[in-house]
Amino acid sequence: MPRNEKELAGLTLLGNKGVNYEFSYSPTLLEAFENLHQENEYIVTLDCLEFTSLCPKTGQPDYGKIVINYIPRAKMVESKSLKLYLFSFRNRGDFHEDCVNIIMKDLIKLLDPKYIEVVGDFNPRGGISIYPYVNYGDAEHQWLVSERMKAVMAKRI
What is the DSSP letter of 150? Predict the structure, then answer.
């Protein structure tokens, strides 16, 4: 059954052609909608190929890819709001490790997911690539936090 107007009422960015892009970090851009399949445990993957932020010391741009995987509870992130939120990092000076932690914490606050992980795959600077990984799980998903962390470590070593 398609979603009704009441279920879509809180989504202000999707379909809005007059949206302005924020050039300053703004977690208030994030919007969520109800998960209609709460009886199922499933993974949502969001692949953000064009993430940009600034080096906090030099102000030079950093480019990379952000991948977000989460197991939803009652809410899910609306993708256009996520796109605008990620764009709001464009002029923010943070290290790559800070970016993935901030993104995860903002999504936890918005969604209260059962499990979430945020992976950064940043383009090399000075000949070094950085791949920060952060995850979180509720009490029932601590096993997944541990297993995913082991898998990431094994892959990178």
Answer: H
State the Cα–Cα distance between residues 73 and 113, nearest whole angstrom.
Answer: 5
Domain-wise residue ranges, the chain: 28-156
Residue numbers annotated as active site: 55, 62
Q: One digit per residue, pLDDT tens: the chain, 157 residues?
A: 677 777 777 776 766 777 777 778 999 999 999 999 999 999 999 999 999 999 898 989 999 999 999 999 999 999 999 999 999 999 888 999 999 999 999 999 999 999 999 999 999 988 999 999 999 999 999 999 999 999 999 987 6
Distance CA 32, CA 116 (A): 15
Q: Give the separation between CA 109 and CA 30, rounded to whole angstroms.
A: 10
145: part of which helix (H) or strand (E)? helix 142-156
Taking the C-alpha atoms of residue 128 and residue 109, their distance in angstroms, rounded to an integer, is: 32
Proportion of the chain in helix, strand, coil states, percent, rounded to 5: 30, 30, 40
CATH number belonging to domain 28-156: 3.30.1130.10
Give dist(CA 135, CA 149) in Å, integer: 8
Quickly tell me which residue has 């009441």 as its tokens.
6
